[in-house]
Design brief:
Largest sheet of chain A: none
Structural class of chain A: mainly alpha
Number of domains of chain A: 1
Distance between the termini of chain B: 38 Å
Strand content of chain A: under 5%
Order of helices and strands of chain B: EHHHEEEEHEEHEEHHH
Oligomer: heterodimer
Order of helices and strands of chain A: HH
Strand order of the largest sheet of chain B: 4-3-2-1-8-9
Strand content of chain B: 15-25%
Number of strands of chain A: 0
Shape of chain B: elongated
Chain lengths: ~70, ~270
């Protein structure tokens, strides 16, 4: 069951990564020198990376406490 | 710190831009058009907390019961749901922003280009010459639009051609005037290179008004500033990046090799002409 829970979590993160790749393609293809889209994408990746990291740590703590 | 603005950088703006093609209008949708989306999403950001606070005591007790094996999986399910929810939340927000930011109206001395981004997988680029224009109208409606000077612009064409319609842009009246003036010049036979709107404001570049006697921004004619364009795009390769922003740009340009224009090819073309 524990493995299944981490597997589901991995699937969610994988789906998100695939989407991020699509957005990365868009921004690298259509952004101009000096526009803000690259920075917005960077903020998006950093914040969501942090979010995933925090939730992953929470899951580990949850299992360690039990 | 003197921050380099978008219009101060010599650069091509779209794929098939001529070296000597001057840009008079570059207009994106105003942020005010995005405000309802931001308000809705701000509510959705706190929505799970509200649901959790209003949920019954049994759920809270089951989740907070640390010793129980069932509650571990309840908490796991809760964490996975929260991860999925916030990731979907942020991806929808980013997609909406991409739609908003990549929908652009460009007016050059030769043509009008309308780029419409519809979702992540649909991008329409429409082009129109000034000779095809019949009339240009603008409309400001609503409290927020009136306060922020935002409006819709409609460019009507002759015959069966599709009308151009751009919503919620800044300075719609000025943009309409520039287009009408350029259209008039085109119809009276003024050569492309000599077309300049005979108006107090000659250009609107990314919400910045360019006045008649002001120095033209580099973005308006990247061909004349081609050497600089090459330098700008390659500057991170010729010296060590100094600031965090330069380091980020350096990483970005090294990662994305598919930039819009191959500057080396452009430079070679320019040398051949000379």
């Amino acid at each position: 069951m524990t493995v299944l829970m981490f597997f589901i979590f991995g699937i969610v993160v994988l789906a998100f990564s695939l989407f991020s790749l699509v957005v990365f393609y868009h921004i690298s293809r259509f952004s101009y020198i000096g526009d803000i889209s690259k920075r917005v994408f960077f903020v998006f990746m950093v914040s969501d990376g942090l979010l995933i990291g925090i939730f992953f740590i929470l899951m580990i703590i949850n299992h360690l406490l039990s | 710190m003197n921050k380099t603005r978008f219009h101060q950088i010599a650069q091509p703006l779209f794929v098939n831009q001529r070296d000597d093609e001057r840009i008079f209008v570059l207009s994106r949708r105003h942020t005010i058009g995005f405000i309802w989306f931001i308000i809705t999403f701000s509510f959705l950001l706190v929505f799970p907390f509200i649901v959790f606070l209003l949920s019954n005591d049994t759920l809270s007790q089951t989740i907070s019961n640390i010793g129980s094996q069932d509650s571990v999986y309840y908490r796991d399910a809760l964490i996975i749901s929260a991860t999925g929810y916030y990731l979907i939340f942020s991806t929808i927000l980013l997609s909406a922003w991409v739609n908003h930011y990549y929908s652009i109206l460009i007016v050059t001395d030769e043509r009008i280009i309308e780029i419409i981004q519809k979702g992540l997988f649909a991008r329409h680029v429409n082009e129109m010459t000034f000779e095809q224009i019949e009339d240009v109208s603008c409309k400001t409606q609503g409290i927020l639009n009136t306060v922020f000077g935002v409006g819709d612009l409609e460019i009507q064409t002759a015959g069966s051609l599709r009308n151009f319609s751009v919503n919620e842009i800044s300075y719609p009246e000025l943009v309409a005037e520039v287009i009408l003036e350029l259209s008039h010049q085109a119809k009276t036979g003024v050569a492309i290179q000599k077309r300049v709107p005979d108006l107090p404001v000659v250009a609107i570049i990314d919400k910045i008004l360019i006045y008649k006697n002001q120095d033209m921004p580099k973005i308006m004619n990247f061909g004349q500033n081609l050497d600089e364009a090459v330098k700008d795009s390659r500057s991170h390769l010729s010296r060590k990046p100094r600031s965090l922003r330069e380091r980020f740009d350096c990483w970005w340009w090294n990662t994305c090799n598919n930039s819009l224009v191959d500057f080396e090819v452009e430079e070679k073309r320019k040398n051949e002409r000379m």
